[in-house]
Amino acid sequence: MIYIPTDFNMDLTPAGLRWRYEDMSGIPRIHRPDGSIFEPTLRYFAFCWLNRIFKAKSSMGPPSSSLREFLCHSTNLGLDWVGAASDDVLRTFRNLFSERVKDGELSAAQVELKLDHVFHFYKYARKAIPYLGGLPTQQFVGRPSSLAPITSRTVAGKSRWSGWSKIKRSAPDRPTPDFNDVERILEHLRSAAMDPLDGTWEQALRVYAAERNWLIACCKAKAGLRRGETADLSLQKIAESLARLKIVTMPSGRWRSNVQPNPLNDAVNDPSLQAEIIAGIEKHAARGYTTLQVEVATKGRPSRSIEFPLNVIIDILQIGIWQVRKTLFEKWTAAGSTKLDYDAVFLSSTRNGTRLTKKAVGDTVKKAFNDLVVGGSGHRLRAYYFTEMAWLLWNEEQAMAGYRNDVVVNNNVMNRLADLAGHKSPGTTEKYYLDKARLRHRMKKNRSSVDARKDMMNALISVSWNLDVDRCQRLQKLIYAVDDCKDPRFFAVMDAAIEKYVELKDRPQPSRAPHLRLAVDNSS
Fold first, then answer.
1. CATH numbers and ranges of domains, the chain
2. Residue predicted with more confidence, 27 or 505
3. Given Cys at both, which of 155, 283, 307, 455 links 291, Cβ 3.0 to 4.6 Å?
């Protein structure tokens, strides 16, 4: 079985935990996939806190994430933590991130920092865990001349792993565009499409290119696609996603042609089928769904599923496929072109039917940033997407947790962000967007709304156990009515009924059971 880092859950030690007479609450804990606590890292962080090697407990977060990734990697290699202590395993751990560094998702400096975290753990492991199986713990780190499995060297007076590389950190990335900047970029890319056609093919191409470029930016800003994923977006995969919802029917059986039958292509010249497909998507949206999961190809790694907003899917079909691509294919077919890519969503205007390249996708959006003097490039639209998604996911997880902020909320948000980003595990990228969402959550302008939601949840929790089924169902209907109704008379009637029949009072909060005070036996 191949594990991913999120299979190793992380949390913090509970309040009241003491070790060697010191408060050890809030220390990172890593759990194995079977739920058991991985004791070596717990002892390591406790030892480092006792000796103030870490100046704050909050600074243990990044090292704990690195150690979780290393534990996952060594487990997949079939090694326990002692057997994983070697120069060769550290090198394989570095190579684990090579594709992400190549794609710009992770910097080489970040990878070296992860290696330094692992080296630091093994450096202090013997002091943190003096005995293993009744015998003195071996020395894991030493000079190349020693028998230690991990070799070290001194760099600027500091002990480092012998294979560690000093990499100068690049300048900070350009700021993420805000909502207004993104809207300006989208409007600018589409502006040429607003011009009426004058009958010339050159002007028609500019209009169609503007519609295509606008859809490209929508895919990046509203679905978080990389430029390669945008260029490789497959109409067949969109059809398969719609087929899973029974909105379209995929043909079965074998076919002799290399072109796989696709009902979305069949609808190009069938307005009634187009209307049927759009009606199916809108019906799906009416049930409360906002996205469609579409599989996208990611070079160097397995494909991943993207949450595509339904309105973007409709725009891709109605504008990108059934209008723009239809007209381009008719023109190129009449000119004798036979190499038409019926699976491509975004086509090159100059190559007569072939898919737009990854470079062209990046250049198109970058030009819009430059034209409007907005800092960044198409990659920053992806950053904007994760900024917005972190905020939405944070609110959603907070609501499900009863507006109680705890480590479970943080972990769930980071794991979901990692899934959206196509990362195997949460890392510094997810933590960055989570921190931004938490800061936004604490902003003064949101405080009254957050407090009101919290008070509502506290009231509901405090009385829910005493309500019978009928009252619970009546309350459920009332909540939906408050959300849906726009008639002020409804609220006037409701307020009058509350004033007459309900005695409002501050209900005391239910007393919580205190945490058990744990004491770890330090006699060993």
1. 5-161 (no CATH), 179-376 (1.10.443)
2. 27
3. 307
